[in-house]
Specification:
three-stranded antiparallel β-sheet; globular; 15 helices; alpha+beta; six-stranded antiparallel β-sheet; about 15% strand
Amino acid sequence: MKAMIGTTVGAYRITRQLSEGGMGSVWTATHTVMGKDAVIKFLLPELSHDEAMVRRFFNEATAAASILDPGIVNVFDVGTLPDGRAFIVMEKLRGSSLTDRLRAGRMRVEQAAVVLRLLARSLEAAHANGIVHRDLKPDNIFLVPDREVPGGERTKILDFGIAKLSERGATMATRAGSIFGTPAYMAPEQCSDASTVDPRADLYALGCIAYEMVSGTPPFGQGGLEVLAAHLRDEPVPLGQRVPGVHPGFAGVIHCLLRKEPNERFGSAGELVAAIDALRLPPPGIADGATIAASVPPHGPTTPAPGSYPPPSGSYPPPPGSYPPPSGSYPPPASASYPATPGQPALTTHGAAAGMVVQPALDLSLDELLKLIAWIRHIYNGDPKDAEWLTEEQKKNFTPYKATEHASAEGAAKPDAGECKAAAK
């Protein structure tokens, strides 16, 4: 196979092999004129003589090329080599698969919500074109850098090889009774007959993916027939039990996606987007402090005024009446300001939807700013590692605001079908 390096396929010259499997091989290539990189997928020679297999292989290109959305991988060309091998030329992505990302650990809710929303938007475009993916899973989702997207990464959906294309003639039809997909992410109706699924099967798969992003495992684990049976028969363990303190609203959205009956899920990907937006979660950068730090231009060394942020050792928790705000007052109203000590700039917010943002006027050194961020995180999350200057007694006795705000998250009851529908309105 190494003999293919240097071979020209259309306008692309093959440069190296990326992978090889039971269906074919994947190679990188470069456009001979423009120098643009691409990826070429080849179907194995023995499979390229199977008309049904070739049709399914080209189905991937047909489906992806028909969807005009930045979250769908671009297809540049298709064809066959003189020896009969079918190929697809598509864009080369720079980033990592969602599978690789999750190997490093589960995501915070804010980050998972952004990924879920981006996927829903792209599926909305696919479904509008009459295309149901039917094999959504972390392996088929890529995260690529994009500074225009909250969190700095855009999702890309790959591999439409078993997608269901409507109104394209009998040659694209799926035989009744066929079952295919990846068991951990298959909707109950897909587990019994893949030919009958509609866009709501993709929404169920999104629910499985979102559940895994937050908890670290799909709702019924990985496996084969036993997982298919669980999709048909069992209810998933409530997210609040797997992840104590998880945002109950986001957990509710995920459990709505995981309803056994398609009519009890969100009616469309657009409804899912609306439900996520209604939660008004902060941007993912707020969760890890990166966005706050990046929003402040560099300043020279400064000396904070006496008594200013961060609080000196032993001064926490704050005196009565100070932060955290009383129940019901969070998030703060638009353009609210937290009182600053004399000689210290105010900490300003810009509305609940935008999350908390530190204004450039905040004149702190980077070291002092990072300590401030950690203090804010501790107030809201109650994570002891975010406030190393607290005494053990203070850490033990402090009840974070987040715990009181989301006290119902652990073991939260699954909403009924009516609540699922209402969440999108």
